[in-house]
Amino acid sequence: xxxxxxxxxxxxxxxxxxxxxxxxxxxxxxxxxPARDEMATLFDEKFxxxxxxxxxxxxxxxxxxxxxxSMIAQQVPGRMRVFVLNIRDGEFSQPDGLWTLTxxxxxxxxx
Length: 111
Hints:
By secondary structure, this protein is α+β, with helices and mostly antiparallel strands. The chain has one domain. The protein has 2 helices and 5 strands, in the order ααβββββ. The longest helix has 13 residues. The radius of gyration is 13 Å and the shape is globular.
């Protein structure tokens, strides 16, 4: 994650979001990891932003440039997996290993 300057696993992501809420980041305490369906709405091929490698990712410029090229979602109910969205191509995966996968996380909140 750009704030933490490292890739994170699921628990790191949950802890990060908890910290945003405890510190009322941007004045709000309702930050969370997106659900899979929400994550799909954040990807749009019309958007052009850049990841940490300078490559194009398709996410709004409301997100700071320079972050990861993937997004981790909330845990899949009843499973030891999460959905991950590649925001370069819009493809979803469901990798094994909540604690060993390393991805990027972006916190969201409802408007």
